[in-house]
Structures are given as C-alpha cells and as structure tokens.
Design brief:
The complex is a heterodimer of chains A (about 325) and B (about 425). Chain A has a single domain, classed as MetI-like fold (Orthogonal Bundle), CATH 1.10.3720. Chain A has twelve helices and two strands. Chain A starts with 15 loop residues before the first helix and ends with a helix. The N terminus of chain A is likely disordered. The radius of gyration of chain B is 25 Å and the shape is globular. About 10% of the residues of chain B have low confidence. Chain B contains 18 helices and twelve strands. Chain B folds into two domains: about 180 residues, Periplasmic binding protein-like II (D-Maltodextrin-Binding Protein, domain 2), CATH 3.40.190.10; about 180 residues, Periplasmic binding protein-like II (D-Maltodextrin-Binding Protein, domain 2, 3-Layer(aba) Sandwich), CATH 3.40.190.10. In chain B, strands 1, 2, 3, 6, 11 and 12 form a six-stranded mixed beta sheet that branches. A four-stranded mixed beta sheet of chain B has the order 8-9-7-10. Chain B has a two-stranded antiparallel ribbon with strand order 4-5. The chains are: A mainly alpha (about 325), B alpha/beta (about 425). At the A-B interface, α1 and α11 of A face α1, α3, α4, α17 and α18 of B.
C-alpha cells in the first residue's frame, strides 16, 4: 500500500484508488467462496464441538451411554469438584513440572546435537539420521523400553550396583519423593498435594526428551544452514572464538527457531499420555499421573463424561494461555510489515 | 478472467458441499443391521463382542463359538473381540456403538452393578423367558442370580466365576522363612508373619501395582478378612461407613503389607508379579485365579513352583469376578440367533469345556469337573459352598464412579500411606456417590 503513489487531486475518473478497490472486491468474494467449505468445517468440527464440550462439562451427563444435557446445579459444580480433587491437583502439578523440564532438556539437547552435527565433516547424513531416528518411534515403544531401563532392579541400576557398587540406587519412577518441596499440604486447606518436583517424573522427562530432541535438532540444523558463513568468518577474523560466535551470532539468529520449537513441543508435552501409560501409569500417590490419563479414566472407567470433558477443556485453555500470545505476536508482526 | 474465477469458485463450493452431504448420508444410512440383516437360524450372522483375545481366553471363546455354530448351522459367527486394558479399550468401543444405535448381537460385561448400569440405560434386553424355559434359576447360586436380575427380571447370562481372594505362594520361600500358611491362618497371623519372611531374606509380598486394580483388590480382601462377607456387602452399599474401626484396622494392615512388598511394585504388572512369586523372588502374591492359567501357561507347576491358599481370613468367602453376556434391547441385528447363543452358554457340557480352558469355575451346579486340575476343582466347589460376594476392585459391587473413587484413593494411599485421609475420602464418597 505504501508503494502506491498518491492520486492526483481532481482526476476522479481515472484515479487509481477506486480502481483497485473495485478489482479487489470480487476477488475478496471469490476468496471467501473458496474458503467457505473449510471455514464451515472448522467452525462445526472444531469450534462447534469445543462449545458442545463446554456444555457437557456443566451438564449432568455422567455415563457415556446415557446422555443427559440438563445443567448441573450449582453452575460449574463439576469444575469445582475437580479442582478440589487430590488426583487432579497432582495431575496439574505433574504436567507443569513435566512440560518445563522436558522443554528445557529437549531443546538444549537438540541445540547441542545440531551444533555438533553441523560442525562434523564426515558422515553428516549418518549422524543426522541416527539422532532423528527415535522421533520415528511410537511413544508406546519408547515407554516400554524405558520402563525396563529405569526399573529399580534391572537396567541402569544393575550397572550402578554391580559396576559402581552404589548401595542404594535411585528408585526412578517408583519413587514417591517430591524434590525441592515448596508447599506441604496441611490436610485441611484447598491444596491437597505436595508441590515440588516429583522424582518419579524424571525418567519420563528423559524418555520424552530422548525421543524428541532429534526433532529439535532437525529444526536447529535448518536454522544453522540459514546463517551466512560470511558473518561467522568475519567474526573469527575479528578475533571472536567459538563460544563468542555461538553466543553473539548463532544464538540470536536461532531465536525464531527456538520459539517455534518450544511451541511445537509444548503441545506434545501437554497432551502426553501414551508414554506415561506405557512407562509408569498413574504411579503410587499419582506421582506420574497426567491430565491425559485423568480424562481417559473419567470418561472410560468412572462414567463421568462431564468431569472428563471439564478436564479436557482445562487442558485446552492451559495450552491456549501460551499459544494465543504467540499467535497474536506473529499476527501483529505480519501486519506490521 | 475474474468472472471465470468466480464461477469456478462457486462451482467448486457447490461441488464440495454436495460431496460432503453425500458422505453424511452414506454414514447415517450405514447404521443398524444394514449388513447381516438376516433373520432366524436360516442365515445371517451373530456378532459377539468381548475382550477375550489372549491365548487361554481365545481358546475358551472358541468353545462357545463351536457350540453356537453346532446349534445354529448357517449363521456365521463373528468374533468382535477388542484387546487391551482388561476390557477398558473394548468398553470404549462398545459405548460408542451403543450410543450410535449400532449394537453387536451380544456383548460381554460383569454381573451386578456393571450390568445394572446397562439395564438402566435400557440397552440390555429382558431375557426372563429364557431363564424360565431353561430352569436356570435353580442351577445358579442364589447370590449370583441376584446379580443378574433387576426388579424381578433377568438381563444377562453368566458364563464363568473367577475367585479374587487367592494367595499364590512360593513353597520354597515359605519353607526357608519357616512360615506355613493354611486355610485357617488368620489375617493378623499372616500380617505378623511378614517381617519374619523378610528377615529370612525373601521379599514377603509381590505386588504388581502398575495395574491400579491389583492393590485395590489386595485391600479389598484384607477388608473382607476383617469385616466378613456381610460387613463387606454393607460397606460397598454404604450401610457400613468406611471410618468403622474394623475397616481402619484393615487399612492399617494394608499399610504393613505395603512395607513388605517388592520395591519395583509401581512398574510391575499383575502377571509379572505372579510370575516373580513362582520364580522365588517373593513368598506370596494376592491375585485372582486368572493367575493360575498365566502361571501354568508359562510352564510353572502347581505344587512345586507355586502353591495356593485362600487369602487368610477369607476361606469362607468367594470374592467373585465373573463375566456375563447380554443381548441388545433395541436395534437387535439377529434376535433369533442371539437367543440360541445365550441358551448354549449355560449348557452343562459347554460350561464344563469353556471353564476348563478359561481357568475359571463353572457357574452351574451340574457341569462336570472331569479333567479339571486340582486348583480349579477346589474353586468350583468353593463357588457352590462358600458365601459369594462381588468384587469392588473390578467395579462389580458398586457403580463405576464409586469403584473408580476407591481405586484412586488406594493409588493415593500407595504414595501417602495416610490412613485418615483414605478413610475420609471413602466415607465422603459413600455419602455422595452411593444411594
């Protein structure tokens, strides 16, 4: 728009402005028609169903086979019931801890791998494939394998005991310890769970990061390829060492990749279900329970369609808390250009 | 140019709308009985929905299939078994089909509350006439018939009885610790013996708590040992509160047992725990008698590798976990064949063969026990002579919501070991969810 020269005053008929508008209007209509099917489908099958889920979550619909859409009194009682539950509180604590630790570990590992692979001169393709390979596995496969790796009596502990002679090896996913506790439940208050880092989650974080850091690596490799070689050469001529080049030239240019990576991995983290089911289940005292398992149990086992739906919606809004600001920022940037 | 584009757009939109509505139409017309809409024994098919997919289960299901095909030649038997999760995957699929008005010809469920939920929904057909025509009421134990009828009408046909209160033991491990367990051992003696076994260097109890039902079932039988069959029945119906002193004692005992379990219980499944017991990694393991089939299938010998005793303090109780079949009340694809199918299930010969393969006890009195291993004979006799109660851990004796609250409370307890919190949660749940 800024490139359009201003219309000379007085020359009404041949003014370029109206001409552009009249050409634009049918184009807009055509585009709208093209978009209509997918827009309608999106509205019905995404937003329509989200709205319907919202309704179910405040209704009396308990058993899946017995639809009851009357509103439950008092309004929103299901949410209140759920928020007070020890299990739900444990699930939320776990998913927050899991997401934060997993994102840090997966992205950092991905970055380190990418830099290494980028620098390697022989068999680059081989390394790239090897690190990306776990991404092709199913979470169930990863979960079963890591369940045995982190079993207190076999796997890693076998080495720790037999080779290093450690007497009390860690209990991994069977541990009920909460590390770095910041809150102890009194038994009377609203919060019924100990807040901190459940130690049992760490093996699951490691397994998830093992599987997905290859994905982060692939994204960083694409980002690294986009950094002009001249900049690095210029920097090294000016006397910048490897670390300074990384800190001042590579990392700033990789920032958009990091953000995209975090957002893409975030939804995997929030929705995590199969890996936890295969590796540890809900765990003793729900130390490894996550909202995904909670939703599944409420809908399938407990006959609480309303509560399962409420939990799913809370999960959706948690994801939106992060993703909506990100999308708004991107949208603003696009309009700004 | 612009005009042409516009026209193309309109055409495209119209076309896609048409395509979509066509899809919708096809989807909805493909509902009940569009395929296999045959009638009677003359043809068509019979679709049987279950979660029996493992070796012994599938072999047992084949017995039922053969009996049906012999009785109704010309009707194709369709095995619609869904594997995984002890039936929870199958249930998810089934509830979708029931909601969509597309039920199978017959499906598997547990008797008692699991059945009553389906009856309340109006999904299961009244089959009282089949009961009268075949005189089944007299052949089944009274407590079991009560778990199959609602308001005087029968809705399901039971096929097998598993006993949940069996303690599987390792004879060598017990011998090493100098502990002997018999049908008369009391629960207090058993709990007191655990440290002794530990001192002998053997893990006293194996628990596979990765499946939440296993610890829930363990606590359930400890409670039974303390409050008896009547007390247990009152507990699961809300007449006896969970904060009763006897239940508290039971939960305290459960806590002691947990102090004596294997350290990897949280990541072991029930079958691994049973196998570890037979392999001498621990002295005892509480599990339903489906473990018997699992152990013998793995080549373990009853008597030498492992032995069994009724869980201490419950020798006069049969903690019942059973399977039954129902037929749909509405949209039944093949009503005549469905009745033939149900009738075959309680035939003495079918009962005898089916339960031998399934590793369970026949539900009717006149099924022959010839060729049954000693354990199964003992269980079948106990089913006819002891007091039958229905399992809570397997969501039979109480509605699914209460059973899940119980199972969740046990999972919490595994972490916190907080007796007060457990009793408080359960007493509140009794008030809010039962009644």
């Amino acid at each position: 728009m800024s490139a359009t020269p201003p219309a000379p005053p007085g020359d009404n008929l041949k003014a370029p402005r109206p001409a552009i508008e009249s050409r634009n209007r049918p184009r807009f209509r055509g585009a709208a028609l093209f978009m209509a099917p997918s827009l309608i489908l999106t509205f019905v099958f995404v937003y329509g169903f989200i709205a319907f889920s919202g309704w179910i979550s405040v209704s009396n619909w308990k058993r899946p086979t017995r639809q009851d859409l009357t509103l439950r009194h008092p309004f929103g009682a299901t949410y209140w019931e759920m928020f007070q539950e020890e299990r739900w509180q444990a699930s939320m604590r776990n998913i927050i801890v899991f997401t934060v630790l997993f994102l840090i570990l997966a992205v950092l590992t991905g970055l380190v791998l990418a830099i290494l692979v980028h620098r390697v001169t022989v068999a680059k393709g081989l390394f790239r494939s090897v690190f990306l390979l776990p991404y092709a596995l199913s979470f169930i496969v990863t979960g079963v394998a890591f369940r045995w790796i982190f079993n207190p009596n076999s796997g890693i502990n076998k080495w720790l005991v037999d080779i290093f002679g450690i007497e009390n090896p860690p209990q991994w996913s069977t541990s009920t310890t909460i590390a770095l506790p910041i809150y102890q439940p009194s038994g009377e208050g609203f919060l019924k769970v100990e807040l901190g880092i459940p130690v049992a989650l760490l093996p699951i974080v490691i397994a998830a990061a093992w599987q997905l850091s290859g994905f982060a690596m692939a994204m960083y490799l694409a980002g690294l390829a986009g950094i002009p070689e001249e900049e690095l050469e210029a920097a090294s001529m000016d006397g910048a060492g490897e670390f300074k080049q990384l800190r001042h030239i590579m990392l700033p240019q990789l920032w958009p990749v990091t953000v995209t990576c975090l957002i893409l991995l975030l939804h995997t983290a929030l929705k995590i279900f199969d890996l936890v089911v295969a590796m540890a289940g809900s765990g003793p005292g729900f130390v490894t329970d996550v909202p995904g398992i909670y939703v599944y149990d409420m809908m399938g086992k407990a006959g609480r369609y309303d509560k399962g739906t409420a939990a799913a919606l809370v999960l959706l809004f948690t994801a939106c808390l992060v993703i909506v600001p990100y999308l708004t920022r991107i949208y603003r940037k696009e309009r700004g250009h | 140019m612009v005009k042409g584009l516009k026209r193309a757009a309109i055409a495209f939109t119209a076309a896609s709308v048409l395509v979509l509505s066509a899809c919708g139409g096809a989807g909805s017309s493909g509902s009940p009985g569009a395929e296999g809409s045959a009638t009677g024994e003359g043809g068509g098919s019979l679709e049987v929905f279950s979660w029996w997919t493992s070796g012994s289960e599938a072999a047992a299901l084949k017995v039922l299939e053969d009996a049906f095909t012999a009785a109704a030649p010309g009707v194709t038997f369709k095995n619609a078994a869904v594997s995984g999760g002890g039936g929870s995957n199958a249930r998810t699929v089934l509830s979708t089909r029931l909601q969509g008005g597309n039920p199978p010809d017959s499906w598997q469920l547990h008797p008692d509350q699991d059945l009553f939920a389906v009856v309340e929904d109006g999904s299961a057909a009244d089959i009282t006439d089949l009961y009268q025509a075949n005189g089944w009421e007299a052949k089944l134990p009274d407590t079991v018939t009560n778990m199959l009828q609602k308001d005087g009408k029968y809705y399901a046909v039971p096929v097998n009885a598993h006993r949940a209160n069996v303690l599987w033991t390792n004879p060598d491990a017990l011998k090493k610790a100098g502990v002997s367990l018999s049908e008369t051992t009391s629960i207090t003696d058993f709990v007191a013996a655990l440290p002794k076994i530990k001192d002998a260097g053997v893990t006293p109890v194996c628990l596979g708590a990765k499946d939440p039902f296993a610890p829930a079932q363990l606590l359930e039988v400890i409670i039974m040992a303390n409050v008896g069959a009547d007390g247990y029945n009152q507990l699961v119906t809300g007449q006896l509160p969970f904060d009763d002193p006897k239940v508290r004692t039971a939960v305290e005992q459960f806590k002691t047992v947990l102090e004596n379990v294997n350290n990897d219980s949280a990541v072991l499944t029930w079958d691994q725990a049973a196998l570890n017991t037979a392999e001498g990694k621990c002295a005892t393991n509480l599990m339903g008698d489906w473990a018997y089939g699992e152990l013998t299938n793995k080549g373990k010998e009853d008597g030498s590798d492992f032995s069994h005793v009724t869980f201490p303090g419950t020798s006069e109780i049969f903690d019942f976990v059973g399977d039954a079949f129902v037929i749909p009340a509405e949209n039944a694809p093949n009503p005549e064949a469905e009745k033939v199918w149900l009738t075959q299930l309680l035939d003495p010969k079918v009962q005898s063969e089916f339960n031998l393969k399934k590793g369970s006890a026949p539900v009717i009195k006149d099924a022959s026990l010839d060729g049954y291993p000693d354990y199964q004979k003992k269980a079948a006799e106990a089913f006819q002579s002891t007091t039958i109660v229905s399992s809570l851990a397997h969501a039979q004796s109480a509605p699914a919501e209460f059973a899940t609250t119980y199972s969740d409370a046990v999972t919490s307890f595994l972490g916190s070991k907080n007796v007060d919190a457990f009793l408080k949660t359960m007493t509140e749940a009794q008030k809010n969810q039962l009644g």
